[in-house]
Each structure stands twice: as C-alpha cells, then as structure tokens.
Design goal:
- Helix 6 (about 360-375) runs antiparallel to helix 8 (about 400-410) and helix 7 (about 385-395) packs across helix 8 (about 400-410).
- The protein contains 8 helices and 25 strands.
- By secondary structure, it is of the alpha+beta class.
- It has a 14-stranded antiparallel β-sheet. Strands 15, 21, 22, 23 and 24 form a 5-stranded antiparallel β-sheet that branches.
Length: about 475
C-alpha cells in the first residue's frame, strides 16, 4: 500500500495559528522567546521568536522572526518539518509584509505576502515555479497582530471580548479570530509559577486556549490534537529535538478514525453506511452524487452525521466530449497557486498524455494511469508544492498525487476538484486526498491507490481547490466511526 499523508499540512495549520498567536503577544516579553512544543504531553519540537525594531521601505517597523522545528513519526516514517516566518508590522503589529517558508524532505515552499488596505497580494515560490493570488480583505476588517490592541486595553481583564483577523499563509486566506478573556488561573511550568489570564481564541480551524500575563505576554497555549506550546528556556525547549530524537507516537495512528468493525476487502467496497461522531463542521456534510449525509441526534454532546456512499460505475459512452464550456464548470478548469494549470511543463505533459482523445472520461483515465505509474511514494515530504514541482520530482504523498492529477486534468480541459477526507485502511479511516472529474457527472479518481475503481470507503469532507484540504483541521484527531453496513 502506498503511503498517504494529508496529515502534515493540516498539522502545520495548527502550528501556524499558534505561532501567529505567539508572535502577537511576544513583544511584551524579553526576546528571544523560546517555547517547547508537545503533543499529548510528548515532546515533538520547539519554537523560537525574536521581535526587534527595524525599517520596512523607509518606514519604522517591527520585525518578527519565528522558527519552528518539529519531528514526527508518520506511517512509521520519521519526518522533520521546519517553518520560518519573517513579518514586518507597524507599531500596532498590523502587518506590512510577510514571508512564510516551510521545508521538509529537502524541499521548500515560500509564501510572500504584501498587505494593503484592501487585499493581501501573495506569491507562492518553489524551486520550479512561482504563482500569485490576491486575497481580498473583507470590508471593515483590520489585520491586527496583537490581541491587546483589539481589546483596547493595557491589561487583561476577565470578560473582555474582541474580533481580530489574521492571514493564513497555508490556506492563502484572511480568517477571523474571536478573542475572549475567560478567567484568571495560576499555572506552573518546569517549577516556575505564573499568574495568568485564560484567553480563548476562536478560529475557523478550532479553539486555541492561551495563558497570558496581565500585560498580554504569552506563557502557554493549547490547540487542536492536544498540541501545547509553553514558555521555556532555550535549553529546555531544544532538549532532545536537535539530537537523534525519535518521537514516541505515530501521528497517523493517533489521528486515525478507528472503526467499530472491520471491512475485509475495502478496495472493492461499492456501498458504505457509516456514522461519524465528533466535531463535524456543517461544511463537511457534503451531499451529492457520491454520498448522502444526514444529521442525527447528537451523542454525548458531539455531532453525529450519517454518510451513505455508493461508488457507481461510469459508462465510457456517456462521457462529455471536448471542449467543455459550461460556465458553472469554469472554476474547475482555472489555475490556482498550487494547481498551476498554465505552467508550460504541465500543459506539455497533459497534451502528451491525452493526445487527440476527445472523451473527457477517457482522458481522465489516461491521466490517472500516468500519475499512478510515474509517481513514486515518498512519505517524508511534508511540504505543500505546486503541480509543476511535483511533476519535476515525480514523488510525494497523496496530496501530491491529487495536485498533479488535478493540474494535468484541468490543463487537458477536464473540470477537476481536489477532494480531502478519509479512506479505510487496516481497521480504521485515515486522512487522504483524491480527485473528482466532471465527465457527464462527477466521477472519483484516486491516483494514489493506482486503480480506476474508487471504492466507497472514501468519505468526502472537503472539495474544490488544493487549499480546501486545510478545512479538515477542524476535525483532525476528533472523530469516531461506527460502520452500519457495507457491501
């Protein structure tokens, strides 16, 4: 079975959100600031952060530099990931310019963001390609880097509330954050006691709890997956991580969705009825030609959604012929920062694979076969890359297969989505990415698994562009599956 890994980019979303919160509070602290990173109490990395006075294009500015290093085990493979961020801000810590760099497995992706009053102008840069996107800033929204400014206070007080907004460099979006000071609490870290206020930060990805001093300086955070950052000395934060440290827990196993019964032959399953129990966002209840979702009564305070999935055969003779010009399908033919459809390399390879074939379904089958036959699994690739980069290396994990397939298909004229969700493997459901193409109806294709038939254990939770996979961060590690029936 080929390795699949949608997990690390989603995990990076959690770290990015927490790092943004740290940056927004750390100007109150002596720098550099060091924080140890833990998951479920187990050491998995560290973060350092420096805030200094500087100039940006002749203007007085704050320069915030952060560095995150994590070491994980994922599908029995050791994976190291590094995140470097440099942000220039005004005196209120609203951003002027930001660079966000992720590296893993010898590969690097950099996002550059220039902030104006109305939008964020982004560039996604890799060794092989550069693409752009303009992200509108909603009217009346200010990007504020420090919750104290949003609260309009010099000191924290219980009951204070405010709304902030931040730029998410992974999803390339501007997202809201609601801040509320909940209570006072004394905590102890490595024998040192701190009098703190507990502050809840509510984001589209989930809640981040922060323990901050009265002046706003940060002491500790808790986020999704049991990820914790806590203030430490440099020696404490780095302890073990920069040596031959091997994390004790496999993240793929920890975050997998365990099932109540076994499916002995999942790859030939044509029908599946399963209940998902947990923090299920309404956006994930996708009912369409692949699956039907019904909300059931909550159980133990958790949402319950029943998914009925049927994998239906498609007849070649029913396929649309090129060109496909329906206006409603146009968004699924466009280039995006990670689906660089207009790359000369992608366009040339798509033309080579499809040739003179006029059948959209036949073209999709050829692309699926080419991607499956030419890509090599590489489980330590923890960086989200544009398709041109994936094509050059011809190696990666499930999201790389899905990104490359989508770009080649769109370049050929086949409307295509990137799908993110769950697939059943060895007793449970694991996070996975695949595709759907409109060839007369939406039909699933999974280049990672290397077969034309896509089985009904594929549970769709997000769809659209490559960045939609990050929506899964809201349920990451929180779901349980009860299989009702399968055939």
């Amino acid at each position: 079975m080929k390795q699949r890994k949608l997990l690390l980019p989603i995990f990076a979303v959690v770290l990015t959100l927490v790092a943004s919160l740290v940056a927004g509070a750390s100007q109150k602290q002596p720098t550099p600031t060091w924080m140890g990173i833990y998951m479920s109490g187990q050491k998995m990395g560290y973060m350092s952060l420096v805030v200094a006075k500087d100039k940006y294009r002749g203007r007085d500015a704050n320069r915030i530099e952060s560095f995150v290093r994590t070491k994980l085990v994922l599908m029995r493979v050791n994976v190291q990931q590094e995140i470097r961020t440099t942000t220039f801000t005004d005196e209120r810590y609203s951003p002027f310019f930001e660079t966000f760099e992720t590296s893993s497995g010898g590969r690097k992706t950099t996002v550059e963001a220039t902030f104006t009053a109305k939008d964020v102008r982004c560039r996604v840069i890799t060794d092989s390609s550069t693409s752009s996107k303009v992200v509108p800033i909603p009217d009346g929204t200010s990007l504020i880097g420090d919750s104290m400014y949003a609260l309009g206070a010099e000191r924290l007080k219980v009951g204070q509330k405010a709304r902030m907004a931040y730029f998410n460099p992974l999803a390339l979006s501007v997202d809201p954050v609601d801040v509320e000071v909940m209570r006072e609490e004394q905590i102890e870290i490595n024998g040192r006691k701190y009098d703190t206020f507990v502050v809840r930060n509510t984001t589209p990805t989930g809640d981040i709890m922060a323990w901050q001093k009265a002046d706003g300086s940060l002491v500790k955070t808790e986020a999704l997956l049991g990820v914790t950052m806590q203030i430490e000395t440099e020696a404490e934060a780095k302890a073990g991580v920069d040596s031959n440290y091997v994390p004790p827990t496999d993240l793929a196993v920890v975050t997998s969705v365990r099932a109540n019964i076994d499916i002995p032959k999942p790859r030939v399953t044509r029908k599946l009825t399963v209940k998902l129990i947990g923090k299920i966002d309404t956006r994930m209840a996708i009912s369409d030609g692949w699956q039907t979702v019904t909300w059931l009564d909550p159980a133990e305070g958790k949402s319950v959604a029943q998914f009925k999935i049927e994998s239906k055969p498609f007849v070649l003779g029913d396929s649309l012929q090129f060109p496909i010009t329906a206006p409603e399908l146009a968004p699924y033919l466009r280039a995006t920062p990670y689906l660089d459809v207009d790359s000369p390399e992608i366009m040339a390879k798509a033309a080579e694979i499809v040739g003179v074939d006029k059948s959209a379904y036949s073209a999709a089958l050829k692309i699926r076969a080419w991607v499956s036959d030419n890509m090599k699994p590489r489980a330590d690739m923890g960086v989200v890359r544009p398709a041109a980069d994936v094509l050059k290396e011809k190696s990666g994990v499930c999201r790389d297969y899905a990104v490359l397939f989508a770009s080649l298909a769109r370049a050929s004229g086949v409307p295509t989505k990137v799908i993110a969700g769950l697939v059943y493997i060895n007793g449970g459901f694991y996070y996975h990415a695949w595709n759907e193409c409109y060839v007369g109806r939406w039909v699933a294709f999974d280049a990672t698994l290397g077969r034309d038939f896509v089985d009904a254990t594929h549970i769709k939770l997000a769809e659209g562009d490559a960045t939609n996979m990050f929506d899964l961060a809201t349920v990451f590690g929180s779901l349980k599956a009860d299989i009702i029936d399968f055939r």
